[in-house]
Specification:
The chain contains 15 helices and 21 strands. It has helices at about 20-25, 65-85, 115-130, 145-150, 155-165, 225-240, 245-255, 260-280, 300-310, 350-360, 435-450, 455-470, 490-505, 515-525, 540-545; strands at about 1-5, 10-15, 35-40, 45, 55-60, 90-100, 105-110, 135-140, 170-175, 180, 195-200, 205-210, 290, 315-320, 365, 370, 375-380, 385, 390-395, 415-420, 480-485. The chain has a five-stranded mixed beta sheet, sandwiched between helices. A five-stranded parallel beta sheet has the order 14-19-13-20-21. Strands 6-7-12-11 form a four-stranded antiparallel beta sheet, sandwiched between helices.
């Protein structure tokens, strides 16, 4: 018998060859949420795997990020299998385009109408498959066999994807006679996928799913029209340019066409920035441009580039960082763990900020603060500001979309911008890239370059950062007058060479190692691009270094 240690020195005694799934069923009563994976020897393993030695393992549930990602992937396959069962040859392509907050937006290409009746039929078939508790069968096949299968079954983007893979095999999953490929781990059977909803949304479907904070709840869709339209526009452009998936981008790199892709992507962003600047300039009442976005969205570079465009239109922008209005450290609120909560709006001196902004709008000279992050105190070093008729304030901070932040500034004087890296690139039709992964890699590279942080330290902080974003930014993003997408279709190919060496430096026994392995596997899909091809004014330079703006 083998001794399997889990939790706080709890032990299972099982025969050699016992599956982790069997063990999960034995201990499931001890867990609030469903066990979907295990972590063993610093690696994540699916439940069908068998144990062959004494070991210490950790059971992964839907309350863990890796568990919820596994659940989401499996739910997507369940939906695709149900669509296949219902529509069959009428379907040309099922395209999982991007996330819509609590789920995924999916377009159906072919001789079907993605209306509410169709959504209901698919949902009923999904429920039927769940009740049957069919296994998700995993099979490793040679790459050339997989590529031929993808071509024969109308999945050219996958054939392209694996054209550049150096591995000898590909893991395919099947539910009944439906076969598919998914990047990452899957649940053992359809019976695990109990919580979902499917509705008609825009011109496609929305698959609604739980999140790791509410693993057994599915909330009604929360429409974010401005963000949705921005993502849809970016996705449609990428499709039109034949760069919507990793395989297509790798094709351009292999053919020596990446310089053109970089220039096109940068030109498109410059056009969007110029359009925002033009809108601001056309309204003389707009004196406070409020810019907010999650971590590593490129707010600083965007502010500089917007300022350049505003100057070109005859305005004089003045940058203001809300961080300089932090309260003194001893008055900073604390989170539920007793740590300083630097992302709380109550960590900002809202009263002083509003008083200073109103004084500037009245034409008064104002002493501007600088926050000393070493001492934890606000300082005044003789810097003053007074604005004139054609001057405009460009204010950057995570709370800039929250009305509390600028509660005394008249609405007619504010123009609010939400910026985020809304990733429009997909691995293939069914495997999308989470926008948070792009921002995480950006932050990891910048942290190492500017702050001396290791990749392990960045990963350790990331959950806390995401919680702060969910609380302080996401609820207000639709209040923005404009949404700017800072994602660049080529950026993963550039970030790859910077991030890989940092991720390889994470020790195998570190809690962050499984996440490092996941990111390394993800980056392996991309061909590398020389960073010297990136223009000096690109938002990407804020993270890899060499920006003309000195950020």
């Amino acid at each position: 018998m083998l001794r399997i240690t889990y939790g706080e020195d709890k032990v299972l005694e099982v025969p050699v060859g016992t599956s982790y799934g069997t063990m999960a069923k034995m201990v499931q009563p001890d867990f609030m949420y469903t066990i979907l994976l295990v972590e063993s020897d610093g690696k994540l393993k699916e439940l069908h795997k068998q144990t062959k030695k004494n070991e210490t393992i950790r059971f992964i549930t839907t309350l863990d990020r890796d568990g919820m990602l596994t659940y989401e992937r499996s739910a997507l396959m369940l939906m695709c299998a149900a669509i296949h069962n219902i529509a069959g040859n009428k379907i040309e392509k099922i395209y999982v385009k991007f996330s819509v907050l609590n789920g995924y937006y999916v377009e159906i290409r072919g001789n079907v109408s993605a209306n509410e009746r169709f959504a209901q039929r698919v949902k009923e078939e999904m429920r039927h498959l769940v009740n049957l508790d069919l296994p998700l069968v995993k099979k490793n096949v040679p790459v050339d066999v997989a590529r031929q299968y993808f071509l024969e079954n109308g999945m050219p983007s996958r054939e392209r994807l694996f054209r550049y893979r150096r591995h000898s095999g590909v893991n395919l999953y099947s539910i009944g006679d439906y076969v598919d490929y998914y990047y990452g781990y899957m649940v053992p059977s359809t019976g695990y996928i109990k919580y979902f909803d499917l509705i008609a949304y825009e011109s496609g479907l929305a698959l609604l799913l739980p999140d790791k904070y509410h693993p057994e709840e599915v909330f009604p869709i929360q429409p974010k029209k401005k963000t949705f339209d921005t993502l849809q526009d970016a996705s449609d452009w990428s499709e039109a340019m034949d760069i919507a998936t990793v395989g297509e981008i790798n094709d351009k790199i292999a053919k020596g066409q990446i310089r053109d892709i970089i220039l096109m992507a940068e030109a498109r962003q410059e056009k969007d920035i110029a359009a925002i600047a033009q809108t601001i300039a056309e309204d003389p009442n707009k004196k406070c441009v409020m810019i907010a976005g999650p971590s590593s969205s490129g707010k600083t570079s965007f502010s500089h580039r917007l300022s350049v465009q505003l100057r070109g239109l005859g305005l004089q922008p003045h940058p203001i960082e809300v961080d300089n209005y932090f309260v003194d450290r001893e008055f900073t609120p604390r989170d539920e763990n007793g740590e300083y909560d630097f992302e709380s709006i109550d960590g900002v001196d809202i009263k002083q900020f509003n008083e200073d902004m109103l004084a500037l709008l009245r034409g008064e000279e104002v002493a501007m603060p600088t926050f000393n992050f070493k001492t934890g105190h606000r300082e005044y070093k003789g810097n003053t500001l007074q604005i004139r008729e054609n001057d405009i304030l460009v204010i950057e901070g995570i709370h800039c979309l929250n009305d509390r932040m600028s509660e005394l500034i008249p609405p007619e004087n504010k123009y609010r911008i939400f910026i985020s890296a809304l990733t429009q690139t997909n691995i293939d039709e069914h495997n999308r890239i989470p926008s948070s992964d792009g921002r995480l890699l950006r932050r990891m590279v910048r942290d190492a370059r500017t702050r001396g942080y290791s990749a392990q330290e960045t990963l350790a902080r990331w959950d806390s950062v995401r919680r702060g974003e969910t609380r302080n930014i996401v609820p207000f993003q639709e209040e923005a007058d404009a949404v700017f997408n800072s994602s660049l279709v080529y950026e993963f190919s550039v970030l790859k060479s910077y991030a890989e060496q940092l991720l390889f430096g994470i020790p195998e026994d570190a809690p962050e190692h499984p996440e490092a392995v996941r990111l390394l596997k993800f980056l392996d899909y991309f061909l590398s691009v020389d960073s010297t091809l990136v223009p000096q004014n690109s938002l990407l330079k804020e993270f890899i270094g060499g920006s003309v703006f000195g950020v």
